[in-house]
């Protein structure tokens, strides 16, 4: 009896271990599985990963296209800004040129209407060219460098009756003649006053010649 009980206990334990081992081996071999788990692992998850990869790729392409569009828009904006700046500069230059031409035309018209204005402009140009240091007055060295050897200045001196025609006066003579206040310098106003034609000559030039003269 005792042997039967022991044999039964041994057989029961052996079969339990064998059953567990066989079941584990069969499960590992794929004979026992959950259909839902298998479908999720073998079908759903691979599909989900593939869809995610496709979505991420589309997003990457969309970002690249957006970056390209932004860069192209920035380039077009820069080109448009450069063209606008260039056009503005051209318009301003044309406007300035038109204003200069209008001012020159007005000055020419005024000079034609009043010859003294043309004479003043000529004297100012000569004075500015002679005033090398920009002091607003001419010293002896500047007079010698510009006024004495300037044919246009020589003509103005002759027209004003300050020197005989064809004469070449020395520097000291010109300074003494043009320097009204005697400070050794010649200002623009002194030069203008000295080079004005004598009133008698101006009146004679305006009067028509007498008949039979």
Structure description:
The protein contains eight helices and two strands. It is mainly alpha-helical. The chain has two domains: 10-113; 115-203, EF-hand (Recoverin, domain 1). The protein has a two-stranded antiparallel sheet. The mean pLDDT is 77.
In short:
It contains eight helices and two strands, in the order αααβαααβαα.
Provide keyphrases for this structure.
2 strands, mainly alpha, 2 domains, Recoverin, domain 1
Element layout with pairings:
Layout: H1 2-28, H2 35-113, H3 115-130, E1 137-138, H4 140-147, H5 151-159, H6 171-178, E2 186-187, H7 188-195, H8 199-206
Antiparallel strand pairs: 1-2
Helix pairs in contact: 2-3, 3-7, 4-6
Query: Radius of gyration in whole Å, from Cα?
Result: 55 Å
The number of strands is 2
The end-to-end distance, rounded to whole angstroms, is 185 Å
- Broad shape: rod-shaped
* Mean pLDDT level: 77
